[in-house]
Design a protein that fits this description.
Elements (H helix, E strand, L loop, with lengths): L2 H7 L2 E5 L3 H13 L4 E5 L5 H8 L3 E5 L7 H10 L8 E5 L4 H10 L3 E4 L4 H23 L9 H18 L2 E9 L2 H8 L1 H29 L5 E8 L2 E9 L2 H15 L3 E3 L2 E3 L3 E8 L6 H17 L5 E3 L2 H22 L3 E10 L5 E12 L3 E3 L5 H7 L2 H21 L6 E5 L2 H5 L3 H12 L6 E6 H4 L3 H12 L4 E7 L6 H6 L4 E4 L1 H6 L4 H16 L3 E4 L5 H9 L4 E2 L10 H7 L4
Parallel strand pairs: 1-2, 1-3, 3-4, 4-5, 11-12, 14-16, 16-17, 17-18, 18-19, 19-20, 20-21
Antiparallel strand pairs: 6-8, 6-11, 7-8, 9-10, 13-14, 13-21, 14-15
The structure holds ligand C2E and magnesium ion (MG) (2 copies).
Ligand C2E binds next to strand 14, helix 14, strand 17 and strand 18.
Amino acid sequence: MNDISQNLNNATIMIIDDEPMTMAVVQAFLEDSGYSRFVQVEESSRGILAIEEKNPDILLLDLVMPGVSGFDILKQVREHPKYCHLPVIILTASSDSENKLRALDLGATDFLAKPVDQSELGLRVRNTLAAKAYADQLAYYDPLTKLPNKHMFSGHFEWALKKAKRHEDHLALLSISLDNLAMINATIGVGPADQVLQLVSDRLESIVREIDVMSRSTGDHKTTSSLFRVESTVFSILLDNMRGVEDAALVAERILQSVKKPIEVEGIEIYPTVSIGIASYPEEGKDCVTLERLATSAKDYTKKKGGNKFHFSSNAINESYAKRLRWESKLRRALEADEFVLYYQPKVDVKTGVIRGVEALIRWQSKAMGLVPPNDFIPLAEETGLIVPIGQWVIEEACNRLAAWNKQGRGPLVMAINLSVKQLEGPEIFSTIEKIIADTGVDPQFLKFEITESLLLDNIENKIALLKRLKKLGLSLSIDDFGTGYSSLSYLAKMPVDELKVDRSFIMDMLKDEENHAIVSSVIFLAKNLGLMTVAEGVETKEQLRYLQDQNCDQYQGFYFSRPIPEAELLELIPVK
Ligand code: C2E
Ligand code: MG
Ligand code: MG
């Protein structure tokens, strides 16, 4: 078998017919000719959806079907931005020339009379596919790079945008142009310059492939990307189904890094660079024409500024991205320069007033900005993934301190450490904690991890499994800010946790009215029945403490007893026995 027929045999053949028997026969005949990819659609109303889903190379279409007829589907196909050129062979029992004329008028590619003759079917399908492959190559692909061209791009873009609108997804268009092609042409001539274009195109292609492989392996979010050569020196990348504009920025960074590696052509070393303009949907534009215009002008702007960079089309996004980058690098430097410190807030026995443990709360002791509270940088650390090394530092530091206090005879105290869901989801968390426990020699029964309720609820079954693995290390778990996330009771019972921390907002309003009374006392009641410890957060007054005593709450935390304090101050509260 030669290459062409091998390729043709890989074609996906879709058959839409209300008679399953006809489809079975057609498929069996074509299988004999070596085809193996078939999609049968019996329900004609699903026709166009099935085409969008399965992306066939050829459609065999029955004309007379109940509900949506073959004519209707043919018309929809020809009006479809992506599938308007799909070859359609009409299967018709009718020798009625009027119907044939109408189908031809609607753009039918060929006809086949029912009942189908095996050899005629095989020949018509093969010829149609071969003609399509050839026409596609000419009309839709760039001869140099073999990438899909501008025409393909337009159809694909319209279709992708429609899909993004339907599913409320984010999408980005990256317009990418080679910076120094004129100079390259002048130095090494046009022929060799084509080699440079080809290599740059290869590099872009491998990035696009990486993105697809990565998004398949992460599971949750399936960003897909496609690459086109839209003009001689301009490529476009479409990113579908992104989480947000940062994804586009990450891809642009990767492109800049990969493209600028030196290339040797005809003994001359060349450093190709590109200028990238990004337009994102829905943030910056809502239709194809606008998005294309915005991406192009952002690319031109980048080039004017010297190239080898990327810009979004809107200043607001450029600025917020730049701000984010600045913060990210500040945080990174803070970690290297050891600028984080832990403060500790006592967790106190409601009945006896004895300190049972402390919660470690991170602060950033910034040389430039002073003491920065966690709410100002933890969310950004979570977004950028920096929470993993920062969180690791917190666990190490907290365990080291706890071990030291115990050695000095100040215990026994439980150290509570806040754990971000991002940390919990990283595969290395278990070995990290295990190693820290081993290195510091702390007894894991004196370690407790607090996880915010609202963040636990997303993909809860998975989280329960992660929490169970954590518990195997011998430590205990607490649900932080309980009451803000609306956990369902059935899940609460299933979660392998030891403690509920009633959110500060309930404690704050607890004495204002009956309703808040009721919430706090029922949460405590519920927790007791599930065998969980209760801790009240944010206790600021004597009256609040008294009420918690009446309710048999186990522990409390709050400014009434102590604010979070540095270690030196804490040590005065937990003297050596
Ligand atoms: P959280 O874990 O719920 O911590 C309790 C917060 O309430 C602390 O704020 C504490 O200072 C504050 N607080 C305690 N008692 C009172 C009170 O009586 N009145 C008032 N108004 N506030 C009180 P902080 O230290 O600013 O921490 C805020 C949040 O930052 C924490 O909430 C936690 O979610 C996060 N966080 C802090 N340290 C870390 C850390 O090491 N890792 C992670 N992932 N998150 C952390
Ligand atoms: Mg906490
Ligand atoms: Mg809390």
